[in-house]
Amino acid sequence: MTGYRESRHLASGRNRLPASTLALVVILACQLMVVIDGTVMYAALPRLRVDLQLARADLSWVQNVYMLTFGGFMLLGARAGDILGHRRVFLAASAAFVLASSAGGLAQSVHELLLARGLQGIAAAFAAPSALALLMLLFPEGEARVRAISLYTAVSGGGSAAGLVLGGVLTDFASWRWVLFINVPIGALLLMLGPRCLPEAPRKGGHFDVMGALTVTLGTSLLVYGLVRYVPDGAARPGVAVPLIAAGLLITAFVLIEKRARQPIIPLSLFASTQRSGAYAGRMLLIGGMLATFFFLTQYVQEVLELSAFHAGLAFLPLSVTQFLMVMVGVPWLLPRLGGRRLLAGGLLIAATGMVCLSRVGADTTFFADLALPIMMLGIGTGAALVPLTTAGIAGVAPSDAGAASGLINATHYIGGAMGTAVVVFVVDLALRRAALAHGPTGSSSELKAKAELTHALSVSATTSAAFFVLALLIVLVTMRSQRPLTAA
């Protein structure tokens, strides 16, 4: 493989890129594509809601269905790469992602869009683990791998924030459909270059834990559905508890399946360490709170502050910049000086403070003081917290379980985002209905009333997310109290 990297070129000529460099570009482009799609729809939500006539609670499913299928099938996707070959799975999943993106861009109904988003999530779940495996194959341990993983981490961390900006640009200058169509040329480039530069990893024997993947994905999906739909019309409807009961049964079945499976997608031994369990829980709370607030914030800046989708996307630029700088510059400098536990606690505290500041929005909110500064605090705090959370999630894992531990980190990331959004939407819905009952009918116009409700929704969302962050802080302080200090992974 060393000879492959050092000598092989795509074509003769002094100025051509080595195959390993081009392969890294292909891998990073794929990772950026699937990560961006987790947030790129946010700025498009107000226009999409009007075009497809969606209720605000149902609108959350445009995000959640992608996050749930991505997180739920990711470990099965990693196993598929081991058994079928990572190069083959990478290319097939990239092709499926392009097709699903095209279908979503052409969707004429909410059901067509949600089906396409679900297929996108499944395709991403198979592409992302194989992309990382191919990167590890291309670059053996040493300085080259450190540089490659640094770039991969920056793309993964900054891609979510960049998606918020890109979504606003595409929605304002083209259409919300181009938020999905943009994947077509990127995917086509991957499929054209991938077969020419990506190596094939040796295949391993194994079994597919399909039932484990299905039960955990269906169980979490029904849990999210039950939370979002529990109070749709001001009162719980008969039979609404059915999806919540079914979710509990499926998640219980998942645990039983994992205990008996020959090659489980999630070895339950990973939860034996309180440090790792705390890291998984903290990550779910952190990502869940962030994405839930973004769901309301992107609508608030467009419908209340009356910014264009383009300017709404730019509103998240401070988040992208501060998070990127913290991951690439701040964490490497602070981690040796503070240690992972202190850096993690400080990051969660800064992020919680940013959310508290964001909860004070009103009708007379100014962009810089009331929005930009809290958003910058969120970027700094999350950037500082994600690296030690990742390190804690793989600490002390046996080599045979390293892949599963890495996959579980990503699974908790995306499932946590969907579940956090569902919980916050549920809390916001209850708060809005309680406020409506307390104030009774008002003489305000429907437009003013809608703006007041959305402002209150963002305030409640940010307050709830701040509580998530504080709970995450308490969990990591307790679970990591007696563990060895976290160092850079």
Protein model, in words:
By secondary structure, this protein is mostly helical. Helix content is 77%, strand content 0%. The chain has 18 helices and no strands. Helix 2 crosses helix 7 and helix 2 packs antiparallel against helix 9. The longest helix has 38 residues. It is globular and about 65 Å long. The N terminus is likely disordered.
Topology:
Blueprint: H1 2-7, H2 19-36, H3 45-52, H4 56-84, H5 86-105, H6 110-138, H7 143-173, H8 178-181, H9 183-197, H10 210-229, H11 242-260, H12 274-303, H13 309-314, H14 317-338, H15 340-358, H16 367-394, H17 402-439, H18 446-479
Protein name: MFS-type transporter EfpA
GO molecular function, one term: transmembrane transporter activity
Transmembrane segments: 21-45, 65-82, 89-107, 119-139, 151-170, 176-194, 206-228, 240-257, 278-297, 309-331, 343-363, 375-399, 411-436, 456-478
